[in-house]
Amino acid sequence: MLNDVMKVIKERRSVRNFEDKPIPEEVLKSVLEAIQWAPSWANTQCWEVVIIKDPDAKARVQEAVPKANPGNKAIVDAPVVLALCARPGTAGYFKGEAATKFGDWFMFDLGLAAQNLCLAAHAAGLGTVILGLFDHDKAAAAVNAPEGYELVTLIPVGYPAKVPSAPKRRDIVEFCREDTF
Ligand SMILES: Cc1cc2nc3c(=O)[nH]c(=O)nc-3n(C[C@H](O)[C@H](O)[C@H](O)COP(=O)(O)O)c2cc1C
């Protein structure tokens, strides 16, 4: 079990090249289930997901992503793009007040949801890439996100045409200390 989980964690890569092949609905559903079961602040589950399949809708979203972003083409090449949106002012709040000095925890909760999604997708033979570098307001407008919601990340999902090699990681001893920082 641990070995299976570690294999998925280590072998997942950011995939930016996709095959022209649709994702079966039941496979997509199982990947979305990974978001459903992500942990979140006080189980707030502040995520909202827009499932983008229509080529014109993908093209509108792509306009928000700089051409220099290595994931730009993945927006139109992947059969599905998931736009992870959040309702700020919920995660990290208690009775309308921020409960910690960090204020809103929606970025944190969406990060957990995104990683759950990417790992489940990889286990299902799919590739994903988390995109963060784009005009968020423009992308939110492209998917008609209502007032009070933010579009945080765009995640193209599909069958990988090319899987890059793993970028180097820091050694565990470089980022871990014992008992004090
Ligand atoms: C919050 C976040 C934002 C990212 N934004 C982009 C992006 O805008 N474009 C892109 O091509 N990759 C993006 N990436 C992917 C990273 O470059 C990638 O995860 C990192 O290089 C490690 O490679 P790996 O995912 O294959 O292990 C992003 C990843 C994260 C977690």
Annotated CATH topology: NADH Oxidase
Instruction: Quote the beta fraction.
Output: 15-25%
Task: Kindly provide the name of the CATH class.
Answer: Alpha Beta
Uncertain residue ranges: none
Bound molecules: flavin mononucleotide
- Order of strands in the sheet with the most strands? 2-3-7-6
Shape: globular
Tally of individual domains: 1
Q: Please give the count of helices.
A: 7
CATH H-level superfamily title: NADH Oxidase
Features:
two-stranded antiparallel sheet, NADH Oxidase, 8 strands, globular, binds flavin mononucleotide, four-stranded antiparallel sheet, 181 residues
Report on this model:
- This protein has 181 residues and is α+β, with helices and mostly antiparallel strands.
- The chain contains seven helices and eight strands, in the order αβαβααβββαβαββα.
- The chain has a four-stranded antiparallel sheet, sandwiched between helices. A two-stranded antiparallel ribbon has the order 1-8.
- Helix 2 runs antiparallel to helix 5 (106-123) and helix 3 (55-62) packs antiparallel against helix 6.
- It is globular, with a radius of gyration of 17 Å.
- The model has no long low-confidence stretch (mean pLDDT 98).
- The protein binds flavin mononucleotide.
- Residues 13-14, 16, 69-71, 129-133, 166-167 line the site of flavin mononucleotide.
